[in-house]
Hints:
The chain is mainly α. It is built from seven helices and four strands, in the order αββββαααααα. The strands form two sheets. A two-stranded parallel sheet has the order 1-2.
Amino acid sequence: MLEWSDSIGFSLNLKKTKFLWIPRRPNYPIPCVPDLLPVKDVRILGVILSDNLKWDKHFDSIVRCCSKRLYALRVLQPLLQKNDLACVYQALIRSLMEYCAPLFVCMSARNKHLLDKVQRRAHRIICHQDCRCQLLEPLNSRRNKAAVNFLKNIFSCSDHPLRFLCPSVSSRSGRLLQPAARTSRRSRSFFHTTVNLINSMPSPLRFDISLCDL
């Protein structure tokens, strides 16, 4: 690896380099990379990517951080009104849980439960134990909206780097055609999940993509 990086004029800092091995099958042997040992997960732009391509470690980290930030709500609860506390929650806690929200539109039930649990704790602090008001919008609804809006932006931008992955539009029904998926993991990816969300919407609520230059 060092020889290859030197051949292309790229200086490799081994102290800041990690080797994440993601095999196609569990029994694939781990290749030998000199001076580097494989790691189980790596943080890239704030997202923890694991070698099993699951997001459990990422959301475990997010929940730990959010649980610490709930202390700010407890301190401010006697001083602020409900709406002001909700703004603090949105700025300090929900913003962290919704980082890269479109990517996690198809997250597992386990991780959904973890995030919803944090929001329920925040709601109890802002209001009280038995409050049933809808002060905080459900996280799942917000993730779905973010995913749909993100796909809309991809369609509307002709030079978007993900434009080539956009699904086709049926000339007869105007609905999005589901991309082919050979594995169950692929069928739960962003594009497949978001296409299902859009096709399940009533026609007046769908964004108009029939005129996009595909």
